[in-house]
Structures are given as structure tokens and as C-alpha cells.
Amino acid sequence: MRALAEFIMRGRVRAVLITMVGIPLISPAALALVSLRRGGSDGLMVLAWALLPVITASMSGHVSPLMTGLAISHLGAVFCGALVLRSSRSWSAALVVLTAAAAAGILGTAHFSGGMLQSLLQAAEESGGGQVAQLQQIFGSEPLATGYLCWVSAITATLALVLGRYWQAMLYNPGGFRREFHLLRMPLPLAAAGMLVWVYCLLTQDYVFWGAVVAFPIMVAGIALMHWLVADKGWGRGPLVALYVMLVIAALPLAGFLCGLALIDSWIDIRGRFSKNR
To answer: Which site from 71, 121, 199, 248 is most exposed, i.e. has the minimal number of CB atoms within 10 Å?
Structure first.
């Protein structure tokens, strides 16, 4: 990982090449690293070159509007999140902006592609048609399909930003990422509003994933708090491995617990109380 990060930072051309290759997680993380370290001008140049082959292929008809929109929204969300994190050094602000950018990109894609659900069904038909009935059963409405893709886009963009920030700390500020992430705490009004929206969306079948999108930054704050607690108590990596396994197996119930934990932390400052009681 260190060798790859050093390769990316040796010059713009190398950063552009890594980003243009389109390796999942690695390529958007390269964009995040350049934007975090060198600023918006270099990051924008890498973003433009990375999107050039996608847009060219779309204009020639080799790539569908759906895939083009997903690529643009994903890289755009990573870029926006990196710029906010660089300027504010606030993970809470970066996560909110990244999630909003991802949602805006997916909504734009749905608009220009003629509807997200219809685009997904069309893509399934073109690939053989075996998954059309399954997609129709899973995504019964346009808001459900759009919300799901917004949620996935926010998750993948956040992972790329986290990796880019980790690379930056590894090269220029060893240990800085760990300290920064452990201190992630959402402002109370934002956490409370996000939880209320999520609870409301849980009561409406078509907007379940939209609630997850709104609550996503709060859930990440809960994960950060768990990382801090495990490190503070010296419990090793086992509890964190179990946490992420459970997030895959039972994402919704555990996400609710993490969001509730983050809301409590925003209210009473759990880290501060632990420090005072020592």
C-alpha cells in the first residue's frame, strides 16, 4: 500500500494513470489522495482525466448513461468529500458533503437515464434477462431503487476517502488518521435530525434506503466511536472484526445501534466523560 501511495504522489501523470485504470476502491482513493494533499486544482485535473474515457465511451454508445452517471457521481462525491476534509479537517462535514454529493449524482443519473429502476431493468435484459424478475421483486418502486444506489454510492465513496486519507497519513503524518478518525463526532442537531428522518423513512416502504442515506454519516460516527472504545480498552482487533462481519450479516439492526450510540455521544460526549472519570 505504501509503495502504491508513493507511486501516485510522484507526479500527476502517475496519479492520472492509476485513476483512469478504474480499479475499484484504489482508483477513487488515488483521486482522494491527490485532492487531500495537493488541493482542488490538481484533484480536478485528475478527476477530469479519469472521466474522459468514460464520457467518450458514453458519447460513442459503448457505455450506457446509467454506468456513466454512476462513475461521475462516485468520483464526484469522493472529490467533494476530499476537498471539504482538506479545508475543514472535519470528518463530520466531509461525510455530510460526500453523502449529499453522492445522492445528487444518483438523482441526476436517474433523471438523465430515464429512471433508475427502468435503467436497471434494461441493463439486466441486455445482460441476458435472467435477473429482471428478481430486480422487480427487490426494487418495487423508483424511490427504492434510487435510494439503494445512493446508499451504496455513499458507502463506496466513503471507503475511497478513508483509504486516501490513510495513505496521506501513512506518507506524511504517521498515526494521524487513527487519531483523527477516533475523534469523529457528529454535531447534536445534525445527529438528532438525521435520526428523526431515518425513523420516519423506516415507516415508509419506498424510502427505507433514503433513510439509510440520511443516517449514513451518523452510522460512520458510531463506527468511529467503537474504534476509539476498542483502542482505549486495548481489546485488540477481534471486536472490530466481529463488528464489520455483523454489519454485513445484519446491517439494518446494527446500523440502528451505531446511530443510537453516535446520537448519545453527540449529546453527552462519551469520550470526554471517560477521560474525566479516570
So the answer is: 248
